[in-house]
């Protein structure tokens, strides 16, 4: 018993300290300790925190999470009509945070045990026919037609095509993608896949 005391005391102190922390404070420490987070991933996490996780859990004490709390969170997103991709991303981030706390010994049981995660099944991509593409190229105003040409001709995604500007032309035949429009964060942000050239 005495042999185990030096090991159990730090764990008990850690559990007591972390269990009393609010979710928002714990996440701040969790983020600070993650050296593997690139700038784009930090922005994605911050967006999910501000729009999904903090409204639900910011002031909740870390010691009060269990599978029922997590399941209620998933059901609330479903009930509110949150998109499946956003549900899956929010669930994954919450899981990363709470499993970190679980590894520290904060929970006796995995708070995700038995919880059914949101199922994101992307629809099959449909490539427009040449006739459909020609119709798109003659529809709308100049800005719309430019976006269509950039997406179909250069393979840019929607947000990347909308963020195009002449400052990213690095040669007569090379355009470097560094930004994309993101309606949930800011008018434009760095591409999550990093710079790419076409």
Mean pLDDT value: 83
In total, the number of strands is 5
CATH topology of the largest domain: DNA polymerase, domain 1
Radius of gyration: 23 Å
Uncertain residue ranges: none
| Proportion of residues in extended strands | 5-15%
Helix/strand structural class: mainly alpha
The domain count comes to 2
Would you write up a description of this structure?
This protein is mostly helical. 53% of the residues lie in helices and 9% in strands. The chain has 2 domains: 5-103, DNA polymerase, domain 1, CATH 1.10.150.130; 130-197, no CATH class. A hairpin with a 3-residue loop joins strand 3 and strand 4 (186-190). Helix 3 packs across helix 5.
